[in-house]
TrEMBL record:
Residues 2-222 form the Solute-binding protein family 3/N-terminal domain. It comes from Streptomyces anulatus. This is ABC transporter substrate-binding protein. Gene3D superfamilies: Periplasmic binding protein-like II. Belongs to the bacterial solute-binding protein SsuA/TauA family.
Length: 294
């Protein structure tokens, strides 16, 4: 059997696991189980649930929002692991001279963000905490390659930046942080799979989690090399990538009650604001223990 791992640039752990195939982290963990490994690169992490359900991939990872929307779409997924919190992974930026001081000040404004990603969770939760609605009180527009320019010229009021784009914007100056991610959500990387694989072959999931930890250990110990890989592949300067990657925890943790509670809160906000059409019970995305023989 070949285990296919989905890879996209927005999940740093999977991205570096893929680009470190020369070290064979995934292969070394799966071969003792009699399995081979393949990688399936794709660009939009929001599609991860769909790709799992179609059997295109067997294992994937995103930020916090895509698994909730995947559940809402009827995909039977199971959470397998999460990263440690990433409080400095991203931020909502405004011009330095903007009158906006709190999330409540976003009412009636246009915000650029990666809609459907963890950034939706960030903005929806910040607005909800301020008594506002993601659906009704702001105009959410999808980020583009010129979002930073639009922000600086006043065409949009705020922009959620992450990774090297955030590092570059801060290096240039003239912008300030209106909302720090870690003050609103934990912003973890989230890893998940199909229920059949999680419940019938848990040893494979354990092996993949070990492989992710090995890739994370490498990236934590070699931030400059990891930055060179990302810069050459995705653009941006090595320095900005190193700054962004050095801010990540590079630690994989078990799925716990606190994480599930935060995901449930997000799901409830998304449903209340119409971002998802039906309610989601996040606890359903947990593997059932195998039945004991009698």
């Amino acid at each position: 059997m070949t285990i296919t791992i989905g890879v996209h640039a927005s999940n740093p752990s999977l991205y570096h696991l893929y680009h470190l195939t020369r070290h064979g982290f995934a292969q070394q963990e799966l071969e003792p189980l009699g399995e081979s490994v393949a990688f399936h690169p794709y660009s939009n992490g929001v599609r991860t649930g769909e790709l799992l359900s179609r059997g295109v991939i067997d294992f994937g990872g995103t930020g916090s929002t895509p698994p909730v929307t995947a559940q809402a779409a009827g995909h039977d997924l199971v959470y397998t692991a999460v990263s440690a919190p990433r409080p400095e992974h991203g931020a909502l930026l405004v011009p330095e001279d903007s009158p906006l001081r709190t999330a409540a000040d976003l009412k009636g404004r246009t915000v650029h963000l990666a809609i459907g990603s963890w950034q939706t969770h960030l903005i929806a939760k910040a607005l909800d905490d301020a008594g506002l609605s993601y659906a009704d009180d702001i105009t959410a527009e999808r980020s583009t390659g010129n979002s930073e320019q639009l922000l600086r010229t006043g065409a949009v009021a705020a922009w959620v930046a992450q990774g090297p784009q955030l590092a570059a914007a801060r290096r240039t100056g003239g912008l300030r942080t209106l909302i720090r991610t870690g003050d609103v959500i934990t912003d973890r990387s989230v890893f998940f799979t199909r229920r059949d694989l999680a419940e019938q072959r848990p040893e494979i999931i354990d092996a993949l989690t070990r492989a992710l930890r090995r890739a994370d250990d490498w990236a934590a110990a070699h931030p400059r090399d990891a930055a060179r890989i990302a810069s050459a592949d995705l653009g941006g300067t090595v320095e900005d990538w190193e700054s962004a990657l050095s801010a990540l925890p590079w630690r994989i943790e078990e799925v716990g009650d606190a994480f599930l509670a935060e995901q449930q809160e997000a799901a409830d906000i998304f449903h209340r604001t119409g971002f998802i059409e039906r309610p989601v019970t996040v606890a359903h995305a947990v593997a059932h223990a195998p039945a004991k023989a009698v």
